[in-house]
Amino acid sequence: MYKSTYIALGISLLAALAYPQKIDKPALQPNLDYLLEGLQENFSPAAHTFDVWGEGWIPQFCLDASESADNGFNPADIKTYNIKYDDCGMPWVVCVHKDSLISIEGLADIFGRVPVASRSFIRHILSLPADHGSAANGGDNVALFQIGDNGFQVLLHEVAHSLDAHAYKEPLSPSDRWQSEVDKDSAIPDNYAGASPAECVAQSTVIAAYNAFVPGGYPSIEPRWEEVRHQYETVQTVQREDAGNILIPGGQCRQRLANSETVAVPTGKRLLRGRWAPWRRSEKPDTSLGEDLEVIEPVDFDNGSCGDDIESRSWGTARQHL
Question: Does pTM top 0.70 for this prediction?
Fold first, then answer.
């Protein structure tokens, strides 16, 4: 399941993707965990390197999100990294808490499995510790809570929210077309797909990626595939016709979202703890995009009431519980 827990970061997704209504259809499966092995075996990570930022700087998103998450996190406990993939001239900036379940090596691996055309619609990733696994996407920034090395499928779902928001000619989940295709099917992919049209599109995107790139496709692992066929085939069609096969690995990045502002880590007494001080702050990192990349215009995500079992709806899409 998915739930959200941040203080709003000025997020609002075209009331479009915020559709609060649930989908009243039976679920084909409790969850999509059975797709993970095939996805990880066939979506290989892009070759990559990474380097850590110098002391004293953090992306604005990582600062705001970490401080406003449940119980709050000390920004001084978070390291910021550049991950440089061979399929893009500019690195992605990600943040990892010192107690995060996933290491920077693991995060670089699962993010690198996301096809570069889709990966380009994500600005930052923040990984934080938590009592249980969950994830959320707000304004093309993904937060992972207690997600480990097997989190590719979770991350792909969160990327799908950004694709739904602005990779296609129009948002898919609030469209009459999507409602019509859902109506044609006798079921939905899993329990969480019933939380809202946005979550149904995201889960159907995971299936569409599996169907398009894993040998044998979705029918090879799901005997009741015809019961949700219109949903995942619609995503496959839209991602091909509107976005040039954005779910298929290969190629080079041509566009990216601008990074959030780089800001100084607060230097209050609580944050110092003997690790660094303002006079030790390194040179401010340059996170501007290269001139050869087209800038993707951002679209704000509405926190809405996407999803079920939501204890707090203050940031991004419904937060995914695992």
Answer: yes
